[in-house]
Amino acid sequence: MALAAQPKNLQIENVVLNLPRNIRCNKCRNTMAKDTKINSRKEKSSGNLEYLGIKNIRFHFNCTQCSAGIVLRTNPQLSRVLCESDATLFCGDQLPGRLPYGLEEVKKRN
Fold it and tell me: Which Pfam families does the record associate with it (predicted)?
């Protein structure tokens, strides 16, 4: 009697992710727009990484141009998504060499 194949890690599942923000790959400088559908691997973080009972989740996927591995992590405490590796969150109105809108005013005050 053959046994059914079991997944190696029950914490990881394949999902389709709509990007929550614009993301720029650090290797090829490709910009992936918000709401781009990407096949990703969803990993529930192990350990004590949770806030008010909500666990942090990591999404692993590849750049659409150069296939570099990119990892996004949710942060329920700050209600946002953070880039962990090989990418940066990117605002469309942000120009290279300039601070994002709002931070320029803070710099002027200091």
Answer: Saf4_Yju2
Give the per-residue pLDDT at 96: 53
pLDDT < 50 stretches in the chain? 1, 95, 101-107
CA distance 58 to 74: 7
What distances in angstroms separate CA 28 from CA 44, 52, 70, one per listed residue?
Answer: 28, 38, 12
Q: Which two tokens stand for residue 100?
A: 């994002």
Q: How many residues comprise the chain?
A: 110
Containing structural domain, residue 37 = 12-94
The alpha-helical segments, DSSP class H, found in the chain are 103-109
